[in-house]
């Protein structure tokens, strides 16, 4: 019997407003590239339907292939990343997929603010099978050197993070131990709930179901299901403790935010900026003028219409901001919001708060100001312009 496969996907060309390097190759039946997209040298895109959102950047030599290929706004795909997904590969806005990542599955679909660390792999044995699917919700961090062995479904909830060298397995067998000789095989999916932390070098085995807000200790091997809010440790992992973390009072929470902003002031000084503080405000002196970061418990009075917007950045614990297009940038920490205009200083604060476990905004990847000591070393050797003497 002859197996007939229609593989004729026609050549397509990026629109004139797309910044495309040399030797960019695209094959697609339907191609949608939004404004601000940059495709570096040697990029290859293949799919029946391809959609690249606004300001997507795909690095040199990346090879992305899926029947439905969709990358959300403000996403970054590093040089050399490889994707091969039979049905779909999709990310929401602000995905960052780092160098050395290789993804092979039937489908890989992720939400907003996905991060896949360097040299992580989605694949392994059996990932060309019909069951090889990965579903990832919003704000998920997959650490460096992770393995997602998606022979069966891997379902990951929102706000999940992992350390380095974490592995998730959905199948296991060895052909020398045959089922005909009484041995068993493992072919089962894995579910990881919301707000789970997977510690360094832990392993999640086929059939595991980890409840919401669990913490898996470094080196643990999770081989069964656990209810929410458990600390799991050991080989095999066992429940070490159940926990209910009571929320902080407003006064306690404000104390933690003050500590974070004081640490940010120290980091800005290290980055070469002049700062000063007074009560619940922090001034940052920039070449174009002074910016003042104000800490408020409630965002509503901080953003009332009679208050000036110029030069202000508002950090509020909670509340309903009264924002407008010409209003100040507003962080609402308990709600994870960043509203209003942004710039390098706002994004540096956003990255700092994220590192202090207070992330805000999930439509852009994280960036920060380079410390002056590092910047001068990076800029010491630059390409010579024509006519410049050695």
Helix fraction, binned, reads 10-25%
Strand content: 35-45%
End-to-end gap? 68 Å
Shape label: globular
Number of H/I helices? 4
DSSP, total strands: 35
Poorly predicted runs of 5 or more residues:
none
Q: Radius of gyration, Cα only, in angstroms?
A: 24 Å
Biggest sheet record: 15 strands, mixed
Overall pLDDT level:
91
Structure notes:
This protein has 390 residues and is mainly beta. Helix content is 11%, strand content 36%. The chain has 4 helices and 35 strands. The chain has helices at residues 250-270, 299-302, 344-355, 372-378, and strands spanning 11-12, 19-20, 25-33, 38-39, 44-52, 57-58, 63-71, 76-77, 82-91, 96-97, 102-110, 115-116, 121-122, 133-136, 141-142, 147-149, 154-156, 161-162, 167-169, 171-172, 186-187, 190-192, 197-198, 203-204, 209-210, 215-216, 221-222, 230-233, 238-242, 274-278, 281-286, 289-298, 312-318, 330-332, 337-339. The strands form 5 sheets. It has a 15-stranded mixed sheet that branches. Strand 31 and strand 32 (289-298) form a beta hairpin. The chain is globular and about 75 Å long. It starts with 10 loop residues before the first strand and ends in a 12-residue tail after the last helix. The model has no long low-confidence stretch (mean pLDDT 91).
């Amino acid at each position: 019997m002859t197996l007939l496969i229609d593989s004729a996907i026609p050549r397509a060309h990026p629109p004139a407003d797309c910044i495309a390097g040399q030797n960019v190759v695209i094959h697609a039946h339907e191609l949608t590239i939004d404004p601000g997209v940059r495709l570096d040298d040697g990029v290859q895109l293949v799919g029946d339907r391809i959609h690249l959102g606004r300001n997507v950047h795909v690095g040199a030599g990346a090879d992305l292939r899926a029947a439905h290929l969709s990358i959300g706004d403000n996403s970054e795909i590093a040089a050399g990343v490889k994707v091969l997904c039979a049905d779909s590969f999709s990310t929401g806005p602000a995905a960052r997929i780092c160098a050395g990542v290789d993804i092979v599955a039937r489908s890989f679909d992720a939400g907003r603010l996905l991060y896949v660390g360097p040299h992580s792999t989605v694949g392994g044995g059996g990932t060309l099978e019909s069951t090889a699917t990965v579903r990832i919700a919003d704000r998920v961090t997959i650490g460096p050197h992770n393995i997602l062995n998606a022979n069966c479904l891997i379902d990951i909830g929102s706000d999940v993070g992992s350390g380095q060298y974490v592995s998730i397995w959905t199948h296991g067998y060895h052909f020398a131990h045959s089922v005909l000789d009484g041995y068993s095989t493992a072919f089962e999916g894995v579910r990881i709930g919301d707000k789970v932390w997977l510690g360094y070098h832990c392993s999640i085995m086929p059939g595991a179901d980890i409840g919401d807000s669990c913490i898996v200790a470094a080196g643990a091997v999770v081989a069964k299901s656990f209810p929410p809010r458990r600390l799991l440790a050991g080989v095999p992992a066992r429940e070490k403790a159940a926990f209910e973390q009571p929320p902080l009072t407003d006064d306690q929470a404000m104390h933690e935010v003050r500590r974070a902003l004081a640490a940010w002031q120290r980091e800005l000084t290290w980055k070469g900026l002049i700062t000063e503080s007074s009560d619940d405000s922090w001034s940052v002196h920039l070449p174009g003028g002074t910016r003042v970061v104000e800490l408020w418990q409630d965002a509503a009075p901080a953003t009332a219409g009679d208050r000036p917007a110029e030069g202000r950045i508002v950090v509020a614990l909670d509340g309903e901001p009264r924002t407008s297009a010409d209003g100040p940038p507003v962080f609402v920490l308990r709600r994870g919001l960043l509203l209003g205009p942004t710039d390098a200083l706002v994004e540096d604060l956003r990255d700092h708060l994220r590192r202090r476990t207070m992330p805000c905004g999930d439509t852009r990847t994280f960036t920060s100001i380079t410390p002056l000591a590092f910047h001068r070393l990076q800029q010491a050797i630059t390409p010579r312009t024509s006519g410049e003497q050695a």
